[in-house]
Amino acid sequence: MRRNAKLCLCLLSACLLAACSASADERVGEAQGYGGTLKVRVTVDGDKLTRVEVTSHHETQGVGTRAIDALPEAMASAGTWDVDTVSGATVTSNAIKEAVRMALGEDVPQASPVTSQQPDATQQPVTFMPDNALSGVGMVATGRIGPGTDDTGAQVYSFNVVFAHGTFDQSGKVLSLNIDQLEVATPNYDGASMPHFSGFPGQGDVTDDAFLEEVASWTTKRQRGDDYKLTTGTWEEQMDVYQQLFTGKTVDEIEAWYAKFCSDETGRPLKEESTSEADQTKYSALSDSEKSTLTDVTSSATMSLRDPHGDILTAIRRAWEDARGSAP
After folding, report:
1. Residue 204 CB neighbour total at 10 angstroms
2. What is the side-by-side strand order in the sheet with 48-56?
3. Strand, helix or coil at 133?
4. What is the DSSP pairing of strand 155-168 with strand 134-149?
5. Is there a contact between 31 and 57 (Cβ–Cβ < 8 Å)?
6. 1-41 residue pLDDT tens
7. End-to-end CA distance of the chain, in Å?
8. Which residues touch 298 (CB under 8 Å, ≥6 apart)?
9. What SS3 state is found at 272?
10. CB-CB contact of 283 with 272 (8 Å)
11. Which among 34, 85, 113, 279 is least buried, having the fewest CB atoms inside 10 angstroms?
């Protein structure tokens, strides 16, 4: 009898395990995130989503990865892919949702903006946009007293030209941004990294050929790539962080973010260890959640968004004005 009872229990357990295996299955999906292909594996029990795992991605650390850390658990808890996006990581959030929807066999709307990277040396974003998206270009130039002085003590001057290409939806929300910048110094700049201008032909010993050759050699801050290093990463990497942060916001919302989270003196994101009294007061007014969000940004991007080094915000606004002006 005992042997029979044990046999029945074993058979019952096997049946239950088989039933669980039959009702729960794993599926995979993928979509284009900000940095490239993002892949997920999901577990479905009946018609309910029970587990989401991002198995592969190329998103920006501290920005896109915030969505990767938060959304899978939120989706599993809700039992659906339809959860709130992570602020500042809209592109990555949308990519996770689309990958999960693909895994579930649902139709993914083609109007959703998706960003990937070209397989070339420039690594510039390629963006697929809705048919009614608006596109515009903005440019703004600023003069700068600096960088520093030359070996005789004479002041060096430079100018910065910021170029912003933006794609926006009909309400003005950013679908994609691509920002670059050219900085050119006066002839007495003796550094090797920054382009400089020796003057026009007829000024001093500048010849026609020398003038044309010099201008043709100028490179933007993106083109300088790994040669333009900042305290954290390169100029290109920091600008990519800002571009992703601003995706999903209107220009007014971007400027409101800047007004709240950046220094009025330097244009840089606020930090707890700031020595400026005004910056300390502004930082102290933030909530704990806002301070945490700001820390995520400053772990990857610290450069100014509006100062003599370049007025990036105005360039973005002018891109939106250009896009709106070209709307049918």
Report:
1. 9
2. 24-32, 37-45, 48-56
3. coil
4. antiparallel
5. no
6. 455 555 455 545 544 444 444 456 889 999 888 777 899 99
7. 84
8. 269, 270, 271
9. coil
10. yes
11. 85
CB 250 within 8 A of CB 172: yes
Structure tokens at 9: 């229990």
At residue 313's C-alpha, the angle toward residues 308 and 318, to 5°, is 115
Other C-beta atoms within 10 Å of 171: how many? 6
| Element housing 153 (H / E) | none
Is the Cβ–Cβ distance between 99 and 137 less than 8 Å? no
Question: How far are the Cα atoms of 26, 35, 92, 95, 199 from residue 103, in angstroms, in the given order?
Answer: 9, 20, 17, 12, 60
Is-contact 206 199, C-beta < 8 A? yes
Is residue 298 classed as helix, strand or coil in its secondary structure? Answer: helix
List C-alpha distances in Å: 57 to 67, 92, 227: 12, 10, 26
Does residue 102 sit in helix, strand or coil?
Answer: helix
Question: Rounded to an integer, what distance in angstroms lies between the CA atom of residue 222 and that of residue 164?
Answer: 12
Q: Is the pTM of this model over 0.90?
A: no
CATH class name, domain 24-117:
alpha beta
pLDDT tens string 107-145: 655 444 444 333 333 344 444 456 688 999 999 999 999
Where do the structural domains in the chain lie, given as residue ranges? 24-117, 134-325
Nearest to 127 by CA among 93, 163, 85, 178: 178
Report phi then psi at 304, rounded to 5.
-70, 145
Cis peptide before 147 (omega within 30 of 0): yes
